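JOB MANIFEST
job_type = single_chain_structure
chain_count = 1
residues = 58
[input]
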Amino acid sequence: MGWVSILDPDHVTAILDIPPHWRLVGYFCLGWPAENHVVPELEREGWETRQRPVHLLR
């Protein structure tokens, strides 16, 4: 499962014909990716840089 954060909520609402009183708060993808990568897509595409964890549990 993956969280998708780059979609336009109004566009998705229109495409899926979602009732106006509903509010989409998250989009999730279920299934296996076509390719596996060590580096996340946001980092590969230059949209985000990897940040150090705030807390590390050992």
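[summary]
The mean pLDDT is 84.
The radius of gyration is 16 Å.
exit_status = 0
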